[in-house]
Amino acid sequence: MAGHGTDGHPHGADRLCEAGDRVYSRAVRRGRLPRRDAEPVPCLLELALLHPDPDDMDWLVPTSPQEVMTRLLRGMYDEVSESQRRVGSAVSAFEWYAGLGRRPSVSRSAAEGPAIRVLDGLGRIQAAMDEATQACTTEVLTVQPGGIRREAELSEGLHRATALRGRGVRMRDLYTHVARHGHGLLSYLELMGDAVQARTLDEVIERLILFDRTVAFIPANSERTMALELRHPALVEYLGTVFERLWRLAIPLTAPLPDTGIEGISHREQSIAALLAEGHQDAVIAERLGISVRTCRAHIARLSETLGAASRTQLGVRIAQAGLDGSRARAVTPSGRGSPSAR
Predict the structure, then answer these.
(1) Worst-scoring range by mean pLDDT, 179-188, 283-292, 295-304?
(2) What pTM does this model have?
(3) 105-133 burial by CB neighbour count: b if 16+ within 10 A, else e?
(4) 281: Cβ–Cβ under 8 A, 6 or more apart, which residues?
């Protein structure tokens, strides 16, 4: 039964307070008791455990324990029945809602999986990449930021690239210009033959791997221990468009980098100058170009010497005067198809 009683006796008939238990027990033993004896325990009257004696209103007689038990059990049964009814209604309702999620989508079949999936841990990332590799039939597009690719990084994806080449899948890779100086990349190029094309840019976006324009993988944290698997058609199409525009701006790996037109200033130093003009710090410039901070500062020192700048402020002025701040149009048109390369 629900908790009837006054503020001092908040309980039901199934859990009497100590005073109520004592008075009700005495009433059951004696058959009746004076009304004044029940004044300290008004809960007994409120719970109908005691009621006035019709023959003498100054006395109270107890409700039999059997009747109290029947009343309690009936109340509990009603509560359980109501709970079961509510559970049934809730289950039916949410089964219907769950069924909505299982209905086929017009834009994506159930076999393709969720539109966005978080992959936590290198093991899960590698497993998902292997699965996408096995399903790939046409092309793979990748963006590989950073500088010179380490042998371990190249070896890690070798089994996937080899499997793709064996099925006639074409691969196109984008790197930073710094990657051109890696011997491992050139060796990987020779191994893969014409299955892979590679181009380079001053800087590229964060890592991207796109299979058949249907599933893409991007990092989900800076440590790259988490990744997002994207299957939403709009997202995948957008990433594919970004890749294609970068690809058109990039320079084939075997083609030389364009001359800056300024004696003593290399293409890399030109890129550093443009980023300095934008106000970036050395560490940011180094990260974007895929070089170490130490190498970046060495190039900045050579820039200062070549341009005759005695301070960073003066260097900024000289960069603008020389047109190295990006004010000169430096359109680069890729000449032909890039040589095969590695990922």
Answers:
(1) 179-188
(2) 0.56
(3) eeeeeeeeeebeeebeeeebbeebbeebb
(4) none
